[in-house]
Amino acid sequence: MSDEPQVNAEVSAQKQLSAIWIIPILALAMGLWMLFQYVNSTGPKITLVLPTADGLEVGKTQIKALNVNVGVITDIKLSDDYRHIIATAQMVKDADRMLREDSLLWVVKPRIGKEGISGLDTLLSGAYIQLQPGQSKTFQDEFSVLDLPPIAPPDAKGLRLILTNKEAGKLSVGDPVMYEGFTVGRVESTQFDVESKKAQYQLFIFAPYDKLVNTRSFFWLNSGINLQLNAEGLEFSLGSIESLLKGGVTFGQLQEDDSGQQITQQMTEFLLFDDVKQIREGMYGDYIEFVMMFDESVRGLKPLAPVEYRGLRIGTVTKIPLKTESSNVYINIKRIPVLVRIELGRLYDNFGTTELPNLKKRVQDEFAKGLKASLKTGNLVTGALYIDTDYFPDEPADPLTQFDGYPVFPTKQGGFAEVQKQVTELLRKLNGLPMDDTLASLNSTLKTSEALLASAERILKKQETQNLPADIQASLKQLETTLGGFGPESTVYRELETTLRELNQVMAEFKPVLRTINEKPNALIFGESNTADPIPAKGKQE
């Protein structure tokens, strides 16, 4: 063992940081800085709901606002019910100012529509999502992506209207709204209301054209081509090329003096009519209803057929036939009731509804004077009928004055029934003719005619008759030769000319003699004397 004394080690805590920790600390600080920079440079994450993921790719599909990238799709997955797509997008810094509850997003891709071709730039770059910033103050991070771009932003200046129609499919999203041929708006959306069982079309009228809509405005379809065959004939109208290709809806006032109040209330409802004619037919709100009882076929008579008076339209057919509660009414009357309207707006410019009873009474008074209605053919091609009214004082009066609470308008047979009646009358007269005597006389006349023709044929076959043209030709040649002897170069013509000249000379010499005889008829007896008459001495002039 060693005799050296033991030395105990003295342990003390080191007060300085070891250099080995510098690298981890720097790495941690750098990571924190990078995390801060990442968080500070990125915006919020949003959730997008789409009907399909067609054209979308994770990490590639951009979100743009005014053609500037403001985000990118980071995740795409199916919803829990597998009915739609849920996509997650990472937005850039400060994008939260654009993400409001009224912001709109839609997919931009190549489209071919009525307005032409759009989105061709996405053929190379791929589809992207367009962001339209909202103006609301409420932030939102979940949106439903539209399949089509919006017609107008929520804060756009203009007027939104609702059009209703019984049938769906009249208009499509994006169809133009036109006024006097100018596009002033678009169709924003279409839907079918189950409760009202009507189609609803939402329109947006851009400012300042929204001032054109008032309480007297009407909306009708702008189909471009209108072809109708009815009792009034063939109606054909062709609109502009734009309306032919795009269709859409047109609005306006039917009368220039219509000064309705301007519509300022959003989502005001209007009726959508098929054409202008339908609007005009519905403008006659004041009318008198009558029932016309026809004892002939009404095939070809349709609702909305015209009722005319000597070519002037005065009303419209309403119901064919007029159905009643009694099941035996048609058997008892053996006639078909047709309900018609005599529309006062077609006859008077200003007519008060309080005068309707008086006018109805005046019309009924005309029945006693022979006013009746009859069916007439309006179109031979389609067989369409219309009702014509006129005075027939010789026709018997109709004993029926009321039918199911309606006054009865007297009728008479017309149209094909009248033709059949005339044909029947003609056949009756033909049956009353003495046909046997007439035929016997006709046979006798035919036999006489045959004998006369046979005699004429025998005369024509004779040789003398056949030589007659040659004899006539020879006589004409002889006459031509005779007349040729009196030509200007003939001797007879020269002698006749000399004789006429001498005769003129004799007449010139004979004129003084005639003048003398005219002045003194006794000159042929006493001769012409130039001696003056004697004058008596007493009366001799000084």
UniProtKB/TrEMBL annotation:
The keyword Repressor does not apply. Residues 43-134, 161-217, 287-389 form the Mce/MlaD domain. It comes from the Bacteria. The chain crosses the membrane at residues 20-39. One of its GO terms (cellular component) is plasma membrane. Pfam families: MlaD. Keywords: Cell inner membrane, Cell membrane, Membrane, Transmembrane, Transmembrane helix. It is found in: Cell inner membrane. This is Intermembrane transport protein PqiB. It comes from Vibrio cholerae. The lineage of its organism: Bacteria, Pseudomonadati, Pseudomonadota, Gammaproteobacteria, Vibrionales.
